[in-house]
Amino acid sequence: MAREGSVKYLNTAKSDKNDEFYTILSDIEKELRHYKQHFKNKTVLCNCDDPKVSNFFVYFSHNFEQLGLKKLITTCYKNCDADLFSKHTAENGIYLEYNGDKNNNRVPDPDEIGIHKLKGDGDFRSEECIKLLKQVDIVVTNPPFSLFREYVAQLVRYDKKFLIVATWNAITYKEIFKLIKANKLWIGVNSNRNFSGFIVPKHYSLHGTEARVDEHGNRIVSTNTTCWFTNLDIKKRHEDLILYKTYNAREFPKYDNYNAIEVSKTADIPMHYKGVMGVPVTFLDKYNPEQFEIIGSNRGIDQDPNGIYGRGSFLNGKETFKRLFIRNKKAT
Ligand SMILES: C[S@@+](CC[C@H](N)C(=O)[O-])C[C@H]1O[C@@H](n2cnc3c(N)ncnc32)[C@H](O)[C@@H]1O
Q1: How many CB atoms lie within 10 A of CB 114?
Q2: Which in 102, 128, 151, 182 has the greatest CB count within 10 A?
Q3: Residues 121, 92: contact at Cβ < 8 Å?
Q4: Tens digit of pLDDT for each residue in 135-158?
Q5: Are both 129 and 270 inside the same structural domain?
Q6: Dihedrals φ, ψ of 284, to 5°?
């Protein structure tokens, strides 16, 4: 039931354009610890982040020296006051620049942070925000769900490295799946139940068994369908999934309408099978492109004129769940 309630939150975020899910610092720390080598001498942009309240700003400003950052830039959308859940009605946005600790107290002091007014509202798509984007090496944030496709497209257009919070559902968006298939975007280290939740405003009702109020009074919901999307290399992406099952036609039936076998659990991928296999989307969490090739999906996202990719896959007349079609490159 908790899961149902939490899925509803994400769907609400999408349909109502209500994008106020704020990331918890411990979730940022838990992920970022796997990427330290990428940040040395780099300029980081958090471009959907009110710096007064964003935990992304907190993380990067407090770890500036440890990561060896060159510069941190944070832009704030339509919001110049300190209220985390202000209605974002201010006309102008601001941006902050932080170049590191100058007085050796190891914390970002107000007089070390440059505050600049933006001419517009701080929309990540605006000319002035794109100008900032062009200056930076890596973008890290949790962007608005309602603008997710546009957000990723912009990162790709400007050829940026990124680490962003996403929803699992976005994997099957046509534009996103193309990037996954082309190995231009992949799943980060922590996903789903590894996220402790998101801080939400007062008008969100806290139902679901995992919804809670923390010791600071923050209202927190768990989505269980959240993950990180990145194009920064991570160790996990080079680890082979250990396969132990042997193929047999009874356990791994062929689809009615596609020349591939159904493998309903990623852990059960048969080790020597050379043909195409349909696996759950959660396979992506274990995906090593040196071991597997992603060929398509059964969800209308990657039409292939020679196959049935993009159409539902059926077993004995019954449509299966969402499946990715993969091939084991190392099968002998
Ligand atoms: C999901 S929240 C996450 C906030 C923050 N990044 C965090 O993780 O705590 C998305 C944020 O994007 C902001 N936002 C909405 N539309 C935006 C836009 N067009 N350009 C920039 N930011 C936007 C919202 O005000 C909201 O603060």
Answers
A1: 11
A2: 151
A3: yes
A4: 999 999 999 999 999 999 999 999
A5: no
A6: -60, -25
Mutate to test the pocket of ligand 1, among 19, 32, 204 (most ligand atoms within 8 A of CB): 19
Instruction: Determine contact, residues 20/49, Cβ cutoff 8 Å.
Output: no
**What CATH number corresponds to the domain at position 190?**
3.40.50
Strand partners, 172: none
Give the model confidence (pLDDT) of 317-329 as tens digits. 999 999 999 999 9
Cα 55 to Cα 60: distance, rounded to the nearest angstrom:
9
Q: Are residues 26 and 90 in the same domain?
A: yes
Q: Range of 19's domain?
A: 2-232
Structure tokens at 21: 């899910």
Q: What is the pLDDT, as a whole number, of residue 309?
A: 57
Decide whether any atom of ligand 1 lies within 6 Å of the 124 Cβ.
Answer: yes
| H helix or E strand, kind and range, residue 112 | none
88 CA distance to ligand 1 middle (Å): 10
Confidence class of residue 223 from pLDDT cuts 50, 70 and 90? confident
Structure token digits, residue 94: 């601001």
The protein residue with its alpha carbon nearest to ligand 1, atom 10, reads 144
**Is 60 exceeded by the pLDDT of residue 2?**
no
The CB density around residue 290, as the number of other CB atoms within 10 Å, is 11
